[in-house]
Specification:
The protein is α+β, with helices and mostly antiparallel strands. The protein contains 15 helices and 15 strands. The two termini are 28 Å apart.
């Protein structure tokens, strides 16, 4: 394993550039690859213990180097052999291809249409009508994106994913052409998942069981089931569809009406029990694993904020004023979407006291991220908690700081620089020198838990894998390889490791947001 950890893709000339070194070297050198000439040399920072990785680390700052080219870093501990990093480039646009791949991933995940995407192409899948669970009724819910490494489609993660992508389009200095069409493909499916008679939104559509690892989507032919309406799905739907209404002016009225209908269902069914899989359904539940009421309240709060922004109607404002405040950008906790919407979009309709309270809440969340970042040896903000899908926390924390930079403009430079460090982490400046984005870096994830990739023997490029998972008993492969390892090192590049190497739409979306809004 490398002992000098860097972003394996590269850096822009003016960016802050740091490597993490895990040997007791007092100095480091940056070597130009073409002629092996030393172009920069400096002292390493003081050694300190990194709790999450168990490493004693030193930081090598080579930000001064701005000349374009290909380089690597060397360092030597007295009495030991010379250590080298992976090579990297300094250039104006090192992330251009990766940015495109992060967004193209959503094309690869399309369901219900003939898909042209190289070796992973396949005919239309899951086109049959699905059975509403517990009834004999069938419904067309074709379309949308496969959620993860399996072929289920789920409303709860879909909502945050389209929010990330739409906000990226809105905030990016150079938004990617075609993004709105990409997102609309998912929205059309979400609209099909609403029960038009009462406004409630079905939780998910899947088969009863996960299919074989090496099966392409068109080969999953078991009966499809639409699982019951849930409070989580309906509130998230209301929020994300209300948000979407400002991006599709020709569809605005229809989208707002669908969002309103869903929110009314939430108000009429406040005590709806948490979604749980029926005994014969084994696919992902996306339920209230937190076991607390806040799980639902933060979703309703987000929905009220987006509907107030979209309509200006006082009933939504009243709900906001009577609600607690919430943060979070993951599928479990979505409160920060609501805070950001109200703070930046409510305009003259906003209540000054609410704005003040919300800004304090938002800034406290940013401060927590920064405090964790400042004590980390690899430029990330997870502390010692690397949960299942830890890379969503990497992306979400970076996204939170970028949104914070737009609210607290005096902190913009600091917040954006820390957010960029999180991208460096994903691309190899981490305890394993592992690029967690398929197809990018010198040591990218090559064996994701993703059925089309397994079937074709090659990973679809541009997928963010889950990353280290400290709960090693989550799957057998991870437990066999990583039991007893420090949290930041509990990862294996193995297709069977769904706890550390699966992919999801909502791990890609915050990473794409960060890359797009930082204009990488």
């Amino acid at each position: 394993m490398k002992k000098i950890h860097i972003n394996q893709l590269g850096y822009r000339p003016a960016d802050t550039k740091k490597a993490t070194i895990t040997i007791n070297a007092s100095r480091f050198s940056v070597i130009r690859a073409s002629d092996r000439k030393i172009v920069f040399r400096d002292y390493t920072g003081a050694a300190f213990d990194d709790a999450a990785s168990g490493d004693t680390v030193k930081i090598a700052d080579f930000s001064y180097l701005s000349e374009k080219g290909t380089y690597f870093i060397t360092a030597k501990e007295e009495g030991s052999t010379l250590e080298e990093s992976y090579p990297f480039v300094i250039t104006d646009d090192p992330y251009k291809e990766m940015r495109k791949a992060l967004l193209d991933f959503f094309h690869y995940q399309k369901c219900g249409v003939d898909l042209e995407c190289g070796k992973w192409s396949h005919p239309a899948c899951h086109t049959q009508f699905a059975t509403i669970y517990g009834t004999g009724e069938k419904k067309d819910v074709s379309g949308g994106w496969h959620d993860a490494g399996d072929y289920g489609r789920y409303i709860v993660p879909a909502a945050m994913t389209i929010a990330d992508l739409l906000l990226a389009y809105e905030l990016a200095p150079n938004p990617d052409e075609g993004l709105l069409d990409i997102v609309w493909f998912e929205i059309e499916w979400m609209l099909k998942m609403q029960d038009e008679s009462n406004g409630g939104v079905y939780h998910k559509v899947t088969c009863k069981n996960f299919n074989a690892f090496d099966e392409m989507p068109e080969d999953e032919l078991e009966e499809l089931f639409i699982l019951p309406v849930s409070l989580a799905a309906t509130a998230d739907f209301a929020a994300s569809i209300a948000l979407a209404s400002r991006f599709y002016p020709e569809k605005k009225e229809m989208l707002i009406n669908a969002a309103k209908h869903a929110f009314e269902w939430c108000l009429e069914n406040p005590d709806e029990p948490s979604f749980k899989n029926p005994p014969d359904i084994k696919t992902g539940p996306y339920g209230n694993w937190l076991g607390i009421d806040e799980y639902y309240e933060n979703k309703r709060f987000w929905a009220a904020c987006e509907l107030f922004v979209a309509t200006g109607e006082e009933k939504y404002h009243s709900y906001i004023k009577g609600s607690d405040l919430f943060t979070g950008l993951g599928w479990q906790n979505v409160g920060a979407y609501g805070l950001y919407a109200y703070i930046t979009q409510a305009g003259e309709r906003a209540d000054e006291m609410q704005i003040r309270r919300m800004k304090e809440c938002f800034q406290a969340a940013c401060f927590e991220i920064i405090n964790n970042y400042k004590t980390d040896g690899y430029g990330v903000s997870l502390g010692t908690t690397y949960r299942w899908g830890s890379n969503i926390d990497v992306g979400n924390n970076a996204m939170m700081l970028i949104l914070g930079s737009l609210i607290f403009t005096e902190k913009a430079l600091e917040y954006k620089e820390i957010a960029l460090d999180h991208i460096h982490y994903l691309l190899g400046r981490n305890a394993l020198s592992q690029s967690y984005i398929t197809g990018y870096g010198h040591q990218p994830a090559k064996n994701p838990h993703h059925r089309p990739s397994i079937s074709k023997g090659e990973a679809v490029p541009g997928m963010v894998v889950g990353g280290p998972c400290m709960n090693t008993d989550a799957d057998e492969d991870l437990m066999a390889a990583c039991t007893g390892m420090p949290p930041a090192k509990c990862y294996i590049d193995h297709a069977g490791s769904y706890a550390s190497n699966e992919i999801t739409i909502y791990w890609n979306s915050p990473a794409y947001f960060v890359v797009a809004v930082l204009d990488l």
